[in-house]
Amino acid sequence: MLYHFNKNLIFYLIAIALVLYLPLLGAVHLFDWDEINFGESAREMLITRDFFRVQINYDLFWEKPPLFFWLQSLMMAIFGVSDYASRLPNAFVGVATFIAFYLIGKKHYDKNFAAIWCLVYAGSFLPHLYFKSGIIDPIFNLFIFLGLYHIAMFSKNKNEGDTKLRIKHTCFAGLFIGLAILTKGPVALLIAILCTAVYVIKEKSIKPFSIRTIGAFGAVCGAVCFLWFGLQILKDGPWFLITFIQYQIRLFSTQDAGHGGPFIYHWLVLLLGCFPGSIFIFKSLRKNYDDNPAQKTLKFWMIISFFVVLILFSIVKTKIIHYSSFCYLPLSFLATDYLYRLLHNKKTFPLFQKVLIGVIGGAIGLAIALVPFVGKNLSKIPNYIKIEDNFAIENMKAEVYWSGWESLIGIGYLITIVYILIQNRENAFKNMILLFVSSLIVIQLTLYIIIPKIERYSQGAAIDFFISKKGEDCYVNTIDYKSYAHLFYAQIKPDQNPIYGKASLNASDTLLCRCKSIENVEQRNNCVREWMEKGPIDKTTYLVTKIDRGGWLKENNTLQKIGEKNGFVFYKREKVR
């Protein structure tokens, strides 16, 4: 062994994960749509004390189950409503992922494998970033991963094995898949079924999946799901479940919210976004004849799950970057498998890997190095390049200070890439570790120094305005563009939604009464916006739009334009006395 890790490795890994993922989670505001959507739903749970229903703008939000929102609400109850609290659950998921990698890696390989696995995951760009986010996918992916791991463990012995141990693995598989369903929906079960089907076809045997094991899995998974889905049906009838499933089908069959893309979309996302881990999986796809049976089974399931999810969401019409994020976990295992053998066998890495390191790593380093230069001259770009998007042009005028020193992050990464490429072949493993460590440092510095500056261009002006209205007894809404930012950052209360607030008590207000009678949430919200513009409002109202939208607001003589900044336009309407 070139490296030796002592018996306290697990504690070191936990400490490292805490240092990597806990600090400065609130360094940048939540991003529209998903991060703010989820954070707002958790905030509304806390405000209404209704933890059974997921809500957005105090309307039923039936697109997602509640488990992740429960965790966010818990963090907000402890630390207050904030960007930090919204992202904190995923930071702890990062710690849990390190622990899972340690336990699985140590059990089937050794501590060296476990340590390399954690480094590969933390040192790859998108896998690391997701633990600093406020989206659902990190915990969803971990639950599916653990569920598939236990399925793999009870499938490895076809003809023998401890029956109690097999049932134990089956029950744990049911538990984790059930928790995944409670986190994001039935696609977790679909992934488990597809992976199992591929395994059965490849092995030409269904013997591991007896009636007893399937029954145990179904019983545990069903019991976990019943904790919410079942009680929801008992409480409100089957319409909720039907609507929820219809939404899931629509995501698979249509380009939801305009999120389309080519078949290779997710392949490119994984290759570029999971650098440098992604470039080390190719040679790991081959058989290793010195693996023991458990290692062969585990690796086979990693390959199955990687390609099942990748192909599944390449077929799905809606192309959103999160959909293939489960692949980060088996991808990191396969990359670790290669690097682990590089450590033991002292093999050199092939030319194509050096080319990918140079091309992808060099492009990332160059892009980061150029960001400050572009930022300092952003407002001048429309003078040289014709841009049709007026909103984007105004975004570029945001006042953001770039010192120029930020370029050192990218320049340092470029120097590291060059150093790795020119090193002697016998230093291959050490150079690969250097690559992941340097990537990890670059990710952290980019997150804390560059991303907050970029966010000021895209949504900073609007969020500043919404924050300024926090605590004011008023209505706040966006016009002609979708956003959840006004709800979260103005911290809208139930009585600031006209449908549920005091305004709805005014029976003579025919427009608002009509709004209240509309069942479709989107249509009802459009009606409420019309009421805010024309109706007898009982609170001061602020309406926010984009410079290239909401032109009809200028023609309303009841609205006063109170500001315009970085592409956002702000209007005010006094309450009708």
Give a description of the structure.
The chain has three domains: 9-347, no CATH class; 356-459, no CATH class; 468-573, no CATH class. Strand 5 (560-565) and strand 6 form a beta hairpin. It has helices spanning 9-21, 34-48, 67-79, 83-108, 111-122, 125-130, 137-155, 163-184, 187-203, 211-236, 239-253, 265-273, 293-315, 328-345, 351-376, 381-384, 390-395, 407-422, 428-468, 485-489, 510-517, 521-534; strands at residues 55-56, 59-60, 474-478, 540-546, 560-565, 568-573. It is 61% helix and 5% strand. It has 577 residues and is mainly α. A four-stranded mixed sheet has the order 3-4-6-5, with helices on both faces. The chain is globular. The chain is built from 22 helices and six strands. The relative contact order is 0.09. Residues 1-5 have low confidence and may be disordered.
How do you describe this structure in short?
The protein has 577 residues and is mainly alpha-helical.
Let me know the number of strands.
Answer: 6
Share of helical residues: 55-70%
H-E string:
HHEEHHHHHHHHHHHHHHHHHEHHHEEE
Enumerate the strands of the largest sheet in spatial order, edge to edge or round the barrel: 3-4-6-5
Query: How much is the radius of gyration in Å?
Result: 26 Å
How many separate structural domains? 3
Number of contiguous helices? 22
> Could you name the ranges where pLDDT drops below 50 across 5 or more consecutive residues?
1-5
Terminal Cα separation, in Å? Answer: 80 Å
Estimate the strand proportion: under 5%
Please tell me the overall pLDDT.
87
Structural class: mainly alpha
C-alpha geometry: globular
Describe the main β-sheet briefly. 4 strands, mixed
